[in-house]
Design brief:
By secondary structure, this protein is an alpha/beta fold. The chain has one domain: NAD(P)-binding Rossmann-like Domain (Rossmann fold, 3-Layer(aba) Sandwich), CATH 3.40.50.720. It contains nine helices and eight strands. Strands 3-2-1-4-5-6-7-8 form an eight-stranded mixed sheet, with helices on both faces. It is globular and about 50 Å long. This is SDR family NAD(P)-dependent oxidoreductase.
């Protein structure tokens, strides 16, 4: 395996490996799923809209299947996990949201925290006994601006701001990977956990930006296929557990993929452990190993 990745065509033959990709009907998730399917992996598209998922999967090469999963609904997460049989080589927690107004998941969580962190947290721990290789979660360098207010995680008392909620959820994603790796190592598991920062990518999520952000996106954003490279490296590359991959160029915003640095707070073991405990309490799901 490689420690960098320049193109999806550099992936090894993944025949016989099963990979789950959440949110695989568009953007980085679709590009990731397509690249893995092209490399002969069995790719399971875990998506909210199964009909759309089947349309997307029908245009992919190789062996694909579609299963319904709504990360904003813990009952849906549990149904997905309970129905799963067989080993999982790689679980890619790709699905995520960013919304301009405060909304709630079906379980009453703030939507960004619930979809971007708590749903994947529950899914990963429920499937973990069947994971044989790697857990990958999409994070972001925006974690450097994230803050976790444990007295108001759901932003019930603070004024809601989309960028604040998003940064907090991405910090949570990275802390989740760090604590998951610590627990896997302590349990003697061969599974590794890696985060991926896709860089600045032109997707439906970034398409709604305005003003200066819109100009920057138009000028510098890369394609979802290029944004998928850090995810693919995290999934199959020779990279350390608990690390984060990201683009090589333009301050880790474009081109290729390599292991990149994270903020001091993202490495804080006490913060990661506290978030894990709170996440277990909120979801009712615990580390199974």
């Amino acid at each position: 395996m490689t420690s960098t990745l320049q193109s999806a065509s550099d992936l090894p033959d993944l025949a016989g490996r099963t990979v789950i990709v959440t949110g695989a009907t568009g953007g980085i998730g679709l590009a990731t799923a397509r690249a893995l399917a092209t490399a002969n992996a069995r790719v399971v598209l875990a998506v909210r809209d199964a009909e759309k998922g089947r349309r997307v999967a029908s245009a992919m090469p190789g062996r694909t299947e579609v299963r319904a999963l709504d990360l904003a609904d813990l009952a849906s997460v549990r149904r997905f996990a309970e129905a799963w049989e067989g080993p999982i080589e790689v679980l890619v927690n790709n699905a995520g949201v960013s919304v301009p107004t405060r909304r709630l998941t079906k379980d009453g969580f703030e939507l960004q925290l619930g979809t971007n962190h708590l749903g994947p947290f529950a899914l990963t721990n429920l499937l973990l006994p069947q994971v044989t290789g790697r857990v990958v979660s999409l994070a972001s360098q925006v974690e450097r601006m994230g803050r976790l207010d444990f007295d108001d995680l759901q932003m019930e008392r603070r004024a809601y701001k989309e960028s604040t909620a998003y940064a907090a959820s991405k910090l949570a994603d990275l802390l989740f990977i760090v604590e998951l790796q610590r627990r896997l190592t302590a349990a003697g598991s061969a599974v590794t956990a890696v985060a991926a920062h896709p860089g600045l990518v032109a997707t439906d999520m970034t398409g709604g930006s305005t003003g200066l952000a819109q100009l920057v996106t138009r000028a510098f954003a890369q394609s979802p296929d290029d944004g998928a490279l850090p995810v693919l490296l995290a999934a199959i590359g020779d990279v350390p557990g608990g690390s984060m991959t990201g683009p090589e160029h333009l301050v880790h915003m474009r081109g290729g993929a390599e292991v990149i640095g994270t903020s001091k707070q993202a490495k804080d073991p006490a913060l990661a452990a506290r978030l894990w405990t709170v996440s277990e309490q909120l979801t009712g799901v615990r580390f199974p190993l």
